[in-house]
Write a structure and sequence with these properties.
The complex is a heterodimer of chains A (189) and B (271).
Chain A: H1 2-5, H2 13-25, H3 28-44, E1 46-47, E2 54-55, H4 61-64, E3 69-76, H5 79-88, E4 93-97, H6 115-122, E5 129-132, H7 138-151, E6 156-159, H8 175-183
Parallel strand pairs in A: 3-4, 3-5, 5-6
Antiparallel strand pairs in A: 1-2
Chain B: E1 4-17, E2 21-28, E3 32-38, E4 57-63, E5 69-78, H1 87-103, H2 111-125, H3 132-149, E6 172-175, E7 180-182, E8 204-206, H4 208-216, H5 232-253, H6 259-267
Parallel strand pairs in B: 3-5
Antiparallel strand pairs in B: 1-2, 1-4, 2-3, 4-5, 6-7, 6-8
Helix pairs in contact in B: 1-2, 1-3, 1-6, 2-3, 3-5, 4-5
The chains are: A alpha/beta (189), B alpha+beta (271).
Amino acid sequence: MIEQLQKLPGVGPKTAQRLALHILNRSEDEVQGIAQALIDAKKQVGFCQTCFHLSAQSTCEICRNRDRDSSTICVVSDSRDVIALEKTREYDGKYHVLGGVISPMDGIGPEQLHIQPLVRRASTPEVREVILAISPSVEGETTTLYLGQLLKPFTKVTRIAFGLPMGGDLEYADEVTLARALEGRRELD
Amino acid sequence: MGQTYKATGINLKNMPFGETDCLVTVLTSEWGIVRAVAPGARKQKSRLRGRVEPFVVNELLIVQGRSLDKIIQADTLESYPRLSRDLGKLTASQYLAELVLAVGLSEQAQTELYDVFNEHLRRISEITQSSPGAILSRLTHGTFHILALAGLAPQVHHCCLTGRSLKGQDRIQFSFEAGGAIAPEPLDPTQAVPQSSTRPRIDRYLNPKELQLLQKLTAADLDDLNDPPEAPSFETSWLRVEKVLRDYSQYHLDKTIRSATLLDTLYVTEF
């Protein structure tokens, strides 16, 4: 059991041992509940056919929601990013999950991501803006620039701002982040 | 705490490590390729966060560890911000980084490789008109110089077999196995390669323009180019030269340059 638990992300030998002992100390019903929840999740949760976000149904709740703005698609690399953006409660459009970022050095190319379905969605007249919300790493930038080139003929393409985090201290920011923050400056309203 | 050492290095690659750390591969001038952990570098407020991104040059203070070294301080010297504004430049930089990873050595000074890689990144980042020809010529130039430092550059001025000078001939042969260009079989049988030596496998045929471009790569600068970088023939020639040099590198390094796939996606479809 310890070996299996160690396969989980962020779980080292000590944490795996602690979790294993904790599970062994619980009642049989509780352990069965955990096991069943894991099996059910694996069986039932798949990907939305439209946006590729995690979903128990063929179309996710966000894509089904008619109150959301269908003219805007926010492109993210991972389902975790959808959850993070939803927590802001600032965005009411739709999403598209790429399933990773283009990483040429690791052999991950555009064809391994959900880019073709995105192009199909973006090329419909209904879509007026695609927002690229991808982390500003080298791989993220490669993906952003690639998608920008690909989608520009169909619709307006924007990207989220990058630079200093809220509560961040200018003095303690690294030069790379600070340079990007300067580059992405904008006029005050 | 283990022994500390200082190094000036350029990041080649980074990957998530544990919950909040990064595993960074750095080409240092003093110690060659170093793999070190940047603790907490993925935390939102970490001072190392931007400094461990690829193509950032830092002065580093590293502490030796049992299995992996640990970066404890980094002071940025250069970050090539213009690379990340253009997909072609970004892909070419990753291509060169892969090549450096393949030829770079660890635990010994790699000053020349460090200088050459930095110089070519600077040249790629400073391209003003980002046409495929301009990027491919800079990339190919960088590739040639990195191969030369590793002792693997192909012979392009003289025939690999006879040593004869090569100038403007048509259908020059190129053999990966023989290590470069080969003059076509002469009509005069007295100048032919001796019967005892077997002719190596021919992998490509070069036209005079392609041979000329390959010969230009041996120079320190690529100033004397006849065609403007935006001319289609210029781009097609560089594309072919890049492909020859890429296949030659892959043959000798026994390694696929993965970034080249994206380069093909970007440029091959344009011709």
